[in-house]
DNA sequence: CGGCATCCTCACCGATACTG
DNA sequence: CAGTATCGGTGAGGATGCCG
């Protein structure tokens, strides 16, 4: 984090490792996807689609592809009709789960804190 | 994280607390700003500008304003000429530092892992 | 079932110029 | 010094339709 040079890793450009992490997990739906794969293990595409309301097929596909390219999930295609595709965390992918939990914990703290301190009111 | 309802906290809408955290720290320059404030304490605007190459005045101002609204930094304006403004972490802001460190650690692991496993080559 | 191809919108970010 | 104000590019994200 101390250095301020542009680095590259895979598809990502970043100045510090925090930024790199955020580029891997920072997609709008990626935390939720990783959460589901971490919690219940392997999922089919349709299961993820059901588990994540409001996500469109396009976005689900796109985010899954990026996570795959970044090496945090595996994609297993069965040669059957109708198609069957299963997604699961890689070894590397499992290591991100504690980080996500940490983020989640802070978010909850923040939620409470802002309720107590009246941060939650928006002046529209 | 288990629930999938839309919530609101302050300026943010989110489905899970991970998302909320990412909305607070997820701006392009926010991690770096928080890092500097966490490491060396109070900074003047110009000091931050110098410490963060490439950032524009506009972006620095904007990100600082958002961090302030979210309650993680304080803004102290001295009534002097020329103007003097100091930024520092709030109590709440300090609690985000370990989370950032965790993100940074994972990023470094990821960096090594992808070098070892040839993830770092991009097919342009 | 699990996609891909298009088209579109809008928030994010940057460059530049001006100011109390 | 520490900002605003304005304009404009760009790409992430979304809606819709077709396909093996």
Automatic annotation (TrEMBL), chains A, B:
Domain HTH hxlR-type span(s) in chain numbering: 16-115
Single GO MF annotation: DNA binding
Superkingdom of source: Bacteria
Record keyword Ligase present: no
InterPro entries: HTH_HxlR, WH-like_DNA-bd_sf, WH_DNA-bd_sf
Claim: Nucleus is one of the keywords in the record: no
Alphabetical UniProt keywords: DNA-binding, Transcription, Transcription regulation
Gene3D superfamilies: Winged helix-like DNA-binding domain superfamily/Winged helix DNA-binding domain (1.10.10.10)
Name assigned to this protein: Transcriptional regulator, HxlR family
């Amino acid at each position: 984090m101390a250095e301020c040079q542009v680095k590259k890793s895979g598809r990502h450009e970043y100045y510090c490792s925090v930024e790199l992490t955020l580029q891997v997990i920072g997609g709008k739906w990626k935390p939720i996807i990783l959460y589901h794969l971490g919690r219940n293990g392997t999922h089919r595409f349709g299961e993820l689609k059901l588990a994540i309301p409001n996500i469109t097929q396009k976005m689900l596909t796109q985010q899954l592809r990026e996570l795959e390219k970044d090496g945090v999930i595996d994609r297993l295609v069965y040669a059957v009709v109708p198609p069957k595709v299963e997604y699961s965390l890689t070894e590397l992918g499992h290591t991100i789960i504690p980080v996500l939990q940490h983020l989640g914990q802070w978010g909850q703290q923040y939620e409470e804190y802002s309720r107590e301190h009246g941060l939650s009111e928006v002046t529209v």
